[in-house]
Amino acid sequence: MKIAVFAGDGIGPEVTAQAVRVLNALAIDGLEMVEGDVGGAAYYKHGHPLPEATLEIARNVDGILFGAVGDFSCDHLERALRPEQAILGLRKALSLFANLRPAKLFAGMEGFSALRPEVASAIDLLIVRELNGDVYFGEKGMRKTEDGRRQGWDMMSYAEDEVRRIAHEGFKAAQKRGGKLCSVDKANVLETSQLWRDVVIEVSAEYPDVELSHMYVDNAAMQLVKSPGQFDVIVTGNLFGDILSDQASMCVGSIGLLASASLGTRQTEYGTVGLYEPIHGSAPDIAGQNKANPMATILSAAMLLRHSLGLGEQADRIEAAVAKALADGIRGGDLGGNASTSEIGDAVLARL
Ligand code: NAD
Ligand code: IPM
Ligand code: MN
């Protein structure tokens, strides 16, 4: 079993270090870890945010633990050289099209949600976000119009096969959970979304046991704070899923708690090859201060064990240890406490 650790920028190295400590503590027989450079760190070292050597590692491992990328000092670079291209490039190169972002309120965390406790306590949802298409990967550009105005554009599109495969993931996830799937789109305005909705309805014929509903994304944003308990699985496009998942994180307390798995179709003898990362970014405002909450990354490592290495029991152990640390009052700055990144790592390790 071989996994890659791509720590990246900002708080990325700090939070992945804690997740690696947790993985090491499990002393998994035959587990090998290799490191690779991504993001701004890779740009400054090799001149590219996703060097060929890193891609080579990525193509030859069973799973990838990813920290975060993003460095404001690179924001002036041409887009192809910006740190964010590392994560976008890995998702595309490995065809990791299904991004699973679970949001569940941990026991005792009602008071930390941005929502009222009685509203927050009902949250147990999964966002299934499409990750290889949409406005993220369409043709884009910037130009001067004939009358001298600057214009920027990004082409939004989905082809039916792209919608079909993520719809299947949404339905299958719903079958394993509460049996409800809400497809989120903007079909009242966008052709991309009309196709999305049509295809999701077609696919639903294969899943008579799943209760399908549709919601416009603006309403979904509202419903997510009004009554998030109504959602089981949400399936949506790349951009809407990005935005709604950050919103969901504050409904359960903090962005420092939300993990994710990005999966494709490649199987190994252990599981599905995937990339695992917290949903947050490089948090430059707190980077290098031992302040970031590593729980989202630690929980991402648990997802890696479950989905890519077939080690569900070890994943359960990690998740239980994080839940216990929270129940015992261990809080990072994101939750109004003062536990440092490494102290949170210590606390999880002690409860493994
Ligand atoms: P961000 O998620 O990095 O930070 C948003 C806010 O949340 C900040 O106040 C930050 O301090 C806080 N925060 C985030 N993670 C935290 C944690 N683990 N513990 C405590 N607080 C935490 O989003 P941003 O500020 O919009 O973006 C910063 C950079 O990260 C940008 O360059 C952006 O492109 C990049 N980014 C990368 C990823 C990724 O690598 N997948 C994801 C999102 C943003
Ligand atoms: C995320 C991030 C990325 C995205 C950026 C950094 C490209 O926001 O993983 O949620 O938009 O997908
Ligand atoms: Mn995001």
UniProtKB/TrEMBL annotation:
Recorded superkingdom: Bacteria
Isopropylmalate dehydrogenase-like domain location: 2-348
Localisation: Cytoplasm
Alphabetically ordered keywords of this record: Amino-acid biosynthesis, Branched-chain amino acid biosynthesis, Cytoplasm, Leucine biosynthesis, Magnesium, Manganese, Metal-binding, NAD, Oxidoreductase
InterPro entries: IsoCit/isopropylmalate_DH_CS, IsoPropMal-DH-like_dom, Isopropylmalate_DH
SUPFAM superfamilies per the UniProt record, alphabetical: Isocitrate/Isopropylmalate dehydrogenase-like
Site (Important for catalysis): Y136, K186
Cofactor: Mn(2+); Mg(2+)
Family classification: Belongs to the isocitrate and isopropylmalate dehydrogenases family. LeuB type 1 subfamily.
Summary of the function given for this chain in its UniProt record: Catalyzes the oxidation of 3-carboxy-2-hydroxy-4-methylpentanoate (3-isopropylmalate) to 3-carboxy-4-methyl-2-oxopentanoate. The product decarboxylates to 4-methyl-2 oxopentanoate.
Subunit structure: Homodimer.
Name listed for the protein in its UniProt record: 3-isopropylmalate dehydrogenase
Organism: Novosphingobium umbonatum
